[in-house]
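S.,

As promised, the zinc ion run. Input:
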Amino acid sequence: MRKTDHSHWMAERLSEAQDLDPARIDALYGLEPVYEPGLDPRQQPLEDFVDIECPHCGESYPTRVELLYAEQQWIEDCQICCRPILISASVDPQGMARLRVERAS
Ligand SMILES: [Zn+2]
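Predicted complex:
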């Protein structure tokens, strides 16, 4: 059984974690995304830059995240040490991206 290491969750905006609303909790638990009334998703940016910490060398750098997809995963090479990083991203209905990083090899 694989151990989940929550210390690898990056870019958590802790101040926002205290006012969890139902839509946000749904997003956290991977349920259907719920859009807030009055929040037009077309007005949200399509991408964002989020700092990740390389699991190989420990350096941080910003990586581009597409906000169109609630769940996505990709491999990219660290911009500092060039080793491959598996990035798992989840984007909540408010457009807030959370990234988890693992060594891809
Ligand atoms: Zn690195």
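The chain is about 5% helix and 35% strand. Helices lie at 22-28.

- D.
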